[in-house]
Amino acid sequence: MTPADQALAAPLDDRDGVIWLDGEFVPWRAARLHVLSHGLHYGGSVFEGERAYDGQVFKLSEHSARLVASARRMGFELPWSATELDAATREAVALAGLAEGYVRPVAWRGSDTLRLVAPDNSVHVAIAAWPWPRIFTDGPRGIRLRTSRWRRPAPDTAPVTAKTAALYALGSLAGQEAEEAGCDDALLLDHRGRLAEATGANLFLVLDGALHTPPPDCVLDGITRRTVIALAHDLGLTVVERHLAPAELDRATEVFLTGTAYEVQPVTAVDDRRYPLGEVGAALAEAYARVVRGGAAVSDGGSSHAVTADDDRGTVADGGSSRTATADDDRAPAPRPGTPAPAPRPDTPAPAVVPGERG
């Protein structure tokens, strides 16, 4: 193992460097919180997962704004604005000397009291940045998903628009069970039994040449997800946001995930189904790489789709024509005549590290 590999393998609490903590940089090993912190006990912390490319954090302002919004959704205000968090993040990345790296902002209520309802507790914020190379340096590799017994909650039972530890506990449980079963990640259904997402990444299916993805009504609307939808529009692809029945996995010709850590990650197996490394996912992965590493422009995706996620029916623009998706129909539409079934593909060896972090 090279010195660089050893540094990457070191425990996260035993590294050199500094961490931004409550407005100042402190030695990495001194960035601590009290064991009676409210956020540690009740799952109320909020966080972001960000990637730096060539020393610049991709979509930084969107991440900082979402951190502030997540805190408000969880009932507390951050002591710093999104603009101030942007500046602190840039400084953290610069001090770490990162070319490619990962950034983790996190905020939590402190240890003033352990009352379950503690609106007056102090609020703490930390930002850490460290090296994070590409997961697969030798080209794309598919991963295997296992459908989990755990489900994403309904929006009237949990703060589904917040990126909070309370919701990621489900992903942690699902992912652990998937790995114990020999898979790389888990696929979660929503509270209605429809396809939702992976443990920390958004889901896309290619059906009849179009991209289909669940609406973000009970899952986080990932920043990477929105970027990929905009890129799909730039490539002339139709994007349909609608509720998807698990049976539609049977006729998908490609499946992939999107997230900060995964970027655009092909899926080669869901339970006993097999999928190829397809052209649509590959084209989007290449386009995404050009944006984050080469500075290529991407549209705002404003006309890439016209589906209203909380509407039962959505019309998608498709080169001047339109296509209507019925969100509440659990039956998979019949495949087009002559559409081949997904080709079987041997299982791809699992990667050594598959982080499930959505951006």
What features would you highlight for this structure?
7-stranded antiparallel β-sheet, D-amino Acid Aminotransferase, Chain A, domain 2, 359 residues, alpha+beta, 2 domains, D-amino Acid Aminotransferase, Chain A, domain 1
Structure commentary:
By secondary structure, the protein is of the alpha+beta class. The protein contains 7 helices and 18 strands. It folds into 2 domains: 3-131, Aminotransferase class 4, branched-chain amino acid transferase, N-terminal domain (D-amino Acid Aminotransferase, Chain A, domain 1, 2-Layer Sandwich); 143-326, D-amino Acid Aminotransferase, subunit A, domain 2 (D-amino Acid Aminotransferase, Chain A, domain 2, Alpha-Beta Barrel), CATH 3.20.10.10. The strands form 3 sheets. Strands 8, 9, 10, 11, 12, 13, 14, 15 and 16 form a 9-stranded mixed beta sheet that branches. Strands 1, 2, 3, 4, 5, 6 and 7 form a 7-stranded antiparallel beta sheet that branches. Strand 15 and strand 16 (273-274) form a beta hairpin.
Question: What topology emerges from the helices and strands here?
Answer:
Elements: H1 3-9, E1 18-21, E2 24-27, H2 38-42, E3 46-47, E4 50-53, E5 56-57, H3 60-73, H4 82-96, E6 101-109, E7 123-131, E8 143-152, H5 165-180, E9 185-190, E10 195-198, E11 202-207, E12 210-213, H6 223-234, E13 239-241, E14 254-259, E15 263-270, E16 273-274, H7 279-294, E17 313-318, E18 321-326
Parallel strand pairs: 8-9, 8-15, 12-13
Antiparallel strand pairs: 1-2, 1-7, 3-6, 4-5, 4-6, 6-7, 9-10, 11-12, 11-14, 14-15, 15-16, 17-18
Helix pairs in contact: 3-4
